[in-house]
Amino acid sequence: MFTRQGHSPGVLFPRVLGIEATGTVAALSSPFSPSSSSSDPNDNTKNPNAKDLKVGDVVVTAMGEMGRAYDGGYAEYTLVSENQVMKIDLPDKEEVDWKVLGALPEMMQTAWGSLFTGLQLKAGETLLIRGGTTGIGLAAAGLAKVHGARVVSTTRKPERGAMLREYGVDEVVVDGEGGVAEDIGRRVAGGVDKVLELVGVSTMGDSLKALKERGMCCVTGIAGGRWEVQGFNPMLVIPKGRYLTAYGGGYEELLKTPVGEIYGWVKEGKVKLPIKTFAMEEIVKAHEFMEHEGGAKIVVLP
């Protein structure tokens, strides 16, 4: 969607969009490396499992300039470097649930990386998800619960509280014009341990105030529509003894994400995901849903 809206500088059209893809290996071609991240297409040091790929393997891929520098996932076939392909090992004879697996690569790379790289989340900690009804917010809630965290999520619509609890959220806070820091202070003594900031810089300052001493806030999303902080003064915005970081991953981070294990958690019901599917010829409708409704991961099926 961002590429279509003009937020991906340097993209030359015509271009097949789609920054992720899930499917099976149809053919192996060497040498080939469309990714600008590696100068040697046969260099398997970044992905040692690439040399074991074979036709028929179930695989996922994402990022690496896919859909921007070269044609991406909105097609029956896509050609990508083996260095950015992850093989998914499933139990013998298990039929792949493409609706579920197709939802995981980019979304779970982002949620997993934000929680465990950006925030270093640990069991027993209290996590505040700012922008909890977003797809990433719901995915992060499920992952955090599996890892033993207490999850507090925000929403601007009180009627969405029941839905958030269905996805593993322990406590719901309604995000009003005055922010949530004071409300969080009343609910959680001293403040929360970690904040996953998905609304973005427009609420970042308030989120930092909700942290306990030595707490950490990771800015991952821009659901609020603002990319930059004008006149940012860290001495005024970041409370003493709190930490501000950010997360944005690529295909290298995807390869570190346990996609196969997460797939199992979803199938077992340990993690619940909001997924909405569209047929390939319904791409326009899919983009309209993302832009105007959201709240679910879009999966386009052939």
Keywords:
302 residues, alpha/beta, 6-stranded parallel β-sheet, 27% helix, 19% strand, globular
Question: Can you describe what's shown?
Answer:
With 302 residues, the protein is α/β, with parallel strands linked by helices. The protein contains 10 helices and 11 strands. The strands form 3 sheets. The protein has a 6-stranded parallel beta sheet, sandwiched between helices. Strands 1-2-3 form a 3-stranded antiparallel beta sheet. It has a two-stranded parallel sheet with strand order 10-11. Helix 2 (105-118) packs across helix 3 (135-146).
Helix and strand topology:
Blueprint: E1 20-24, E2 58-62, E3 85-87, H1 98-101, H2 105-118, E4 126-130, H3 135-146, E5 150-155, H4 161-166, E6 171-174, H5 181-187, E7 192-197, H6 201-209, E8 211-219, H7 234-237, E9 243-246, H8 251-255, H9 259-268, E10 275-279, H10 283-292, E11 297-301
Parallel strand pairs: 4-5, 4-7, 5-6, 7-8, 8-9, 10-11
Antiparallel strand pairs: 1-2, 2-3
Helix pairs in contact: 2-3
